[in-house]
């Protein structure tokens, strides 16, 4: 087994010497006088060296014992896992601290010392080429041994890559399985092989799927194909089982945990209650809904006018009067006028006829009838620049024409700009200009504003946003990651206000659950993880397999990692390209992070590349588009 092509070797003499009992006899004290082995006996067949104490020889025996474990394990068709190799490396490191070891090594290892010593250094590496070579040889032989099984375990014979994934027995294996590549067949065949080879009993295997339907289907398929009762669980049912074992009873799960619509209705009710009972919350809520409800990129960040217009439509930029506005900034102006009781007309035709052969009638953005004031909001920055998809010269020509038109007809025009919105001074400027012009502000009451919001259909927007964020927040371990990158003052104010509202709603949500003695799914995973971390869970698990790993959330990953430390081997199966549960807290970046850590963990990445569901040219197209993922 050591004939693999690696840049080091152990001489046959060393293996023969050890296996014939040389050091073992010395370890038993044969020929020893007192505390050391004397004289020329060190050069005799028993492998004794002058001046080496019996305790030193015993230590050498321990070292060479673990060294030949490589030979013995591979000879017994045992996979050399990273965990075993790490333990071996630690034991040999401890032996190498003994000064006499160099002489012992020189005596029994091939004279090409530089190459021979590199054996240990290569073996110590987590991704050792020695270990990899031995394991690859073993896997090839296992694929031949179990060929009939792999040909018949499913209706179609397993592909070469599926078989390779099944015979891989690393401490951690990540199987990249695209659509139609047979990931379920691979999981089933892996479980069957473990049982078939006697590596574990069915009750020592746990397979985790993300939905009850997929878990049930996998369980039935395994029972039908393998005739084995293997435990198939969802993360949530697993969490309940762990809590029940640790606490002696299963907790009650709130009804809204499994019903997104019920959760949103519940959030709606909490918002309405707080608006009536908490003045600070009501003020923050109204401010958020009027000025920060919609988050859009700045006009400068869009690549085309069509993209910008689509974003406006998709985000539903409607003001409190229920009407669409041409920009988020104009929507903010309209809401401020409505909130302060200032009647206005949006895009009313100008009072003087401006139509020509080339231009239709001029329609200023806003008109305040009480003082005959027009408001034009211009989309430029401090330097007068427009968005990249807007013709700069033409836009400034239009601005000039509007100014001259008002001047010619003696009408008043107030100019506002996009940069004032970004800097957070737009509304203060508006308030100052209108009050100086004689407008009396008549702010609407909370009840009036809430009615306006209900009539315009925007109230449920925050409830939906808060419901999604609650799931993400708790799924991330109740942590908020700071935003990275440059932000405008408006964006920062929006974030701060949103988090202040969320903190209040989160407190109410948690208090209601506590009063009812209930938990949600995120609480369940958190509590189960805490029990595993504290060692309150006793399990006989040896193998854990996780399907759809790309849909794992941070707290689910922590629970899985904790359980993995108990089990002998873990297998993750997934495909970043198929991540679909980001809205409930999953994060495909976690799978990419695990993928990046695999080499240092001594884990293995296996890719199922043959798809039976799609045509080869379509597979190549998708893989090309997502190639940077892997």
Structural key phrases:
8% strand, single chain, 12 strands, alpha/beta, disordered N terminus, 630 residues, six-stranded parallel sheet, elongated
Task: Describe the protein.
The protein is of the alpha/beta class. The strands form 3 sheets. Strands 3-2-10-11-1-12 form a 6-stranded parallel beta sheet, sandwiched between helices. It has a 4-stranded mixed beta sheet with strand order 5-6-7-8, with helices on both faces. Strands 4-9 form a two-stranded parallel ribbon.
Topology:
Blueprint: H1 12-19, H2 22-27, H3 54-75, H4 82-96, H5 101-108, H6 113-124, H7 129-145, H8 147-152, H9 160-167, E1 172-177, H10 183-196, E2 205-209, H11 212-226, E3 231-234, H12 235-247, E4 252-253, H13 260-277, H14 279-292, H15 305-315, H16 328-339, E5 345-346, E6 366-368, E7 373-378, H17 392-409, E8 412-417, H18 418-422, H19 426-436, H20 446-456, H21 459-475, H22 489-516, E9 518-519, H23 521-533, E10 543-546, H24 554-564, E11 569-574, H25 588-601, E12 604-608, H26 616-625
Parallel strand pairs: 1-11, 1-12, 2-3, 2-10, 4-9, 7-8, 10-11
Antiparallel strand pairs: 5-6, 6-7
């Amino acid at each position: 087994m050591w004939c693999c092509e690696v840049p080091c070797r152990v001489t046959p003499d060393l293996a023969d010497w050890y296996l014939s009992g040389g050091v073992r006899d010395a370890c038993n004290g044969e020929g020893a006088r007192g505390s050391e082995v004397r004289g020329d006996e060190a050069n005799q067949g028993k492998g004794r060296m002058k001046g080496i104490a019996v305790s030193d020889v015993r230590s050498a025996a321990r070292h060479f014992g673990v060294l030949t474990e490589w030979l013995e394990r591979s000879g017994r068709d045992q996979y050399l896992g990273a965990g075993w190799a790490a333990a071996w490396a630690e034991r040999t490191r401890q032996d190498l601290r003994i000064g006499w070891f160099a002489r012992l090594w020189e005596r029994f290892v091939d004279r090409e010392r530089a190459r021979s010593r590199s054996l240990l250094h290569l073996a110590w590496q987590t991704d050792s080429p020695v270990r990899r070579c031995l394991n690859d040889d073993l896997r090839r032989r296992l694929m031949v041994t179990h060929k009939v099984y792999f040909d018949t375990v499913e209706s179609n014979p397993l592909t070469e890559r599926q078989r390779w994934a099944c015979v891989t027995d690393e401490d951690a294996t990540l199987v990249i399985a695209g659509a139609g590549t047979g990931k379920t067949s691979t999981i089933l065949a892996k479980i069957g092989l473990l049982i078939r080879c006697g590596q574990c009993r069915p009750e020592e295997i746990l397979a985790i799927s993300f939905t009850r339907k997929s878990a049930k289907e996998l369980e039935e398929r395994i029972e039908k194909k393998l005739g084995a009762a293997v435990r198939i669980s969802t993360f949530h049912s697993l969490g309940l089982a762990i809590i029940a074992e640790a606490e002696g009873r299963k907790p009650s799960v709130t009804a809204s945990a499994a019903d997104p619509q019920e959760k949103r209705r519940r959030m709606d009710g909490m918002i309405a209650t707080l608006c009536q009972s908490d003045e600070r919350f009501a003020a923050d809520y109204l401010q958020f809904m009027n000025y920060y409800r919609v988050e859009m990129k700045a006009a400068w960040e869009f690549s085309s006018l069509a993209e910008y217009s689509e974003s406006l439509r998709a985000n539903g930029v409607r003001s409190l009067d229920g009407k669409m506005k041409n920009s988020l900034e104009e929507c903010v102006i309209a809401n401020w006028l409505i909130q302060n009781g200032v009647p206005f007309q949006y895009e009313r035709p100008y009072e003087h006829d401006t139509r020509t052969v080339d231009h239709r009638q001029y329609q200023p953005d806003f008109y305040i009838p009480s003082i005959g004031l027009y408001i034009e909001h211009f989309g430029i920055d401090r330097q007068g620049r427009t968005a990249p998809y807007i013709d700069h010269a033409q836009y400034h020509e239009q601005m000039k024409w509007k100014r001259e038109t008002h001047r010619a007809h003696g009408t008043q025009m107030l100019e506002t700009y996009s940069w004032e919105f970004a800097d957070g001074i737009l509304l203060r400027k508006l308030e100052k200009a209108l009050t100086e012009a004689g407008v009396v502000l008549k702010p609407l009451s909370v009840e009036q504003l809430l009615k306006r919001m209900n009539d315009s259909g925007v109230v449920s927007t925050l409830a939906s946003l808060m419901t999604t964020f609650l799931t993400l927040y708790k799924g991330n371990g109740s942590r908020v990651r700071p935003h990275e990158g440059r932000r405008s003052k408006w964006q920062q104010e929006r974030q701060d206000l949103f988090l202040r509202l969320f903190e209040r709603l989160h407190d109410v949500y948690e208090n209601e659950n506590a009063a009812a003695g209930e938990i949600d799914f995120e609480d369940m995973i958190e509590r189960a993880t805490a029990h595993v971390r504290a060692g309150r869970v006793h399990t006989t698990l040896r193998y854990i397999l996780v399907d759809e790993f790309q849909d794992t959330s941070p707290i689910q990953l922590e629970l899985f990692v904790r359980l993995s430390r108990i089990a002998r081997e873990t297998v993750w199966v997934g495909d970043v390209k198929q991540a679909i549960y980001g809205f409930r807290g999953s994060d495909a970046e976690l799978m990419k992070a695990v993928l990046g850590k695999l080499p240092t963990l001594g884990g293995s990445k296996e890719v199922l590349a043959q798809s039976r569901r799609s045509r080869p040219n379509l597979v190549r197209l998708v893989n090309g588009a997502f190639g940077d993922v892997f």
